[in-house]
Amino acid sequence: MSKPRPVMIAETRAKLLAAARHAFGTVGYAQSSMDDFTAGAGLTRGALYHHFGDKKGLLQAVIQKMDAEMTARLHNVSSRAPTRWQGFVDECVAYIQMALEPEIQRIMFRDGPAVLGDISQWPSTNGCIAALSRSLRELKADGAIVDVDEEATARLINGASSHAALWIANSENPQETSKRAVEAFRALLERLKKPDGETAKARATISVTGS
Amino acid sequence: MSKPRPVMIAETRAKLLAAARHAFGTVGYAQSSMDDFTAGAGLTRGALYHHFGDKKGLLQAVIQKMDAEMTARLHNVSSRAPTRWQGFVDECVAYIQMALEPEIQRIMFRDGPAVLGDISQWPSTNGCIAALSRSLRELKADGAIVDVDEEATARLINGASSHAALWIANSENPQETSKRAVEAFRALLERLKKPDGETAKARATISVTGS
DNA sequence: GTAGTTGCATACGCCGCGTATGTCAAATAA
DNA sequence: TTATTTGACATACGCGGCGTATGCAACTAC
How large is the greatest C-alpha to C-alpha distance in chain A, in angstroms? Predict the structure, then answer.
């Protein structure tokens, strides 16, 4: 009846991660009592310290998992697009939309950086920036965009996206604000494209359609 | 010998603000013990709660003051420039450079948003975004830039700047990273300009000179 | 002079984190 | 099988930090 040992351990780890993720994502990191949400998972703080060292270590683990999920989602989006440029734009818009999800916004863009510093600096996290960089590099190789520093540009885009998401989420009319933000964002991105013949035509169409 | 009452009160308020600002800016909000830094100012937590309600209220007051200072600095920079466009670019670069100062970075861009939510949403704060918006509006009126949503664009620029600053400050080689970030930023901004005759020439020169 | 208000200090209790310690089951060795 | 060790948790304890209630002295108003 009882499952083998390794899976039991994996399950408790997963339960702790899920409980912490939910608590951090709803009430925030500082307001989350470790006693409370471990009890909610049918465990105690002892298990938590055993697996993750301390509260920050737990947050780190949560973030790492979420980052991986987000990276996968971005990859899905871009791979579905007909052209690389379209894939890139879709990726950026998808990034904003992910940043609108309360859990992601709170953990990845607010509490995470505040508690752990700039996450994008660690190894093995922030696959999102890496994904954006990669897309930009490919576009440059295709000659589709002007010559820019990929990583720097990816980071600027990342910053703009996350702040746009904050703006949207806290605005009185998220729908309207979201349209404005995405539109402005598209306009900025469009201008990365090389201004020659065909692309210029495409730019005109896209800038009108909006979201 | 003893000063009049109102100035004494103002002095204690100022002392508390300064002490808190220093503590928040160096060790961070969560790690700052109210007992410690009030004692450092020759006071106790009693004075603090009397004037600011609670720890968050104190942070709020600190941020409000810093925001006012930053807005003034930005205004200085832009008013010194020969043209409006140059003033705007200078303003943006100055914004990045301010975001590099550890105290500003920590309080305004990390702990502030984490503790208080999106600061730019409150009344009477975030003069910086207002300043950027204003510059963009004027440029649009001049016909110097393409037609974009000023506030949305200002917020994107704000987000890009602060994240760029985080990136720079945490990088191994801040000098080099700073050059890359500012260059990428300039490139992005340049593309807001209307691509007609004279401006196109100016773009070519600027994109080479860098910081 | 007295009553009320204001500016701060002192005292108290609670909560939350981290650590040290205990316990029991599974793994390994003899 | 039995003995020993290791690992996965739970329990117990102390400490620091926050918020609040209370105290007190100085100033103001009448």
Answer: 69
